């Protein structure tokens, strides 16, 4: 019963980020099946880019205050967040880099498998596969194994890069 309120808050946060010039793009995903999970992806090319974005948030107190206030409203609606900073592992990936924001469904396995593999500093592995339909996502999930979840892109919770929109404008028109 908390999902509706949570979704409303995420939409408000995305609108706030747009209006107050959030310094980075991000992709929001919601699991298709229960238990519900929401995953956020932010792509950085370099450590310097991470630092640039961090500094930009520091220099935008209105954005930080608004996000802090809205996050406080979500506190009783969701578990504490878990964060992973990962790097693409081309040597373990069966496909090229994941084209973030290009397809409406994402399949994520929490081990190295046939897809775009990412690894955290703590050695957690994530395999990401994009899918154009729920049937494609379900088939990929079956192939990737038991520690796999299927997610749907939530455009209204995301702040897409122009490139993502150019690759699949239909996906992002519902924003």
Number of strands: 7
Structural class: alpha+beta
Number of continuous helical runs: 6
What distance separates the N and C termini?
A: 23 Å
Order of helices and strands: HEEHHEEEEHEHH
Helix content: 25-40%
Descriptive tags:
single chain; alpha+beta; seven-stranded antiparallel beta sheet
Structural description of this entry:
This protein has 175 residues and is an alpha+beta fold. Helices cover 37% and strands 20% of the residues. The protein is built from 6 helices and 7 strands. Strands 2-1-7-4-6-5-3 form a 7-stranded antiparallel beta sheet, with helices on one face. Helix 1 packs antiparallel against helix 3. The longest helix has 17 residues. The radius of gyration is 16 Å and the shape is globular. The two termini are 23 Å apart. The mean pLDDT is 93.
Summarize the structure.
This protein is an alpha+beta fold and 175 residues long. It is 37% helix and 20% strand. Strands 2-1-7-4-6-5-3 form a 7-stranded antiparallel sheet, covered by helices on one side.
């Amino acid at each position: 019963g908390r999902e509706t309120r949570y979704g409303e808050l995420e939409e408000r946060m995305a609108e706030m980020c747009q209006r107050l010039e959030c310094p980075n793009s991000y992709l929001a995903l919601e699991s298709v099946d229960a238990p519900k999970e929401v995953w956020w992806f932010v792509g950085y090319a370099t450590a310097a880019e991470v630092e640039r974005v961090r500094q930009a948030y520091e220099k935008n107190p209105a954005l930080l205050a608004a996000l802090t206030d809205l996050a406080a409203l979500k506190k009783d609606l969701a578990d504490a967040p878990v964060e992973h900073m990962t790097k693409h592992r081309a040597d373990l990936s069966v496909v090229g880099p994941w084209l973030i924001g290009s397809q409406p469904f994402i399949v994520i396995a929490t081990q190295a498998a046939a897809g775009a593999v990412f690894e955290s500093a703590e050695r957690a592995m994530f395999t990401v596969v994009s899918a154009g339909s729920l049937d494609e996502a379900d088939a990929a999930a079956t192939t990737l194994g038991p520690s796999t979840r299927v997610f749907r892109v939530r455009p209204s919770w995301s702040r897409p890069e122009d490139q993502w929109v150019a690759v699949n404008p239909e996906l992002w028109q519902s924003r």
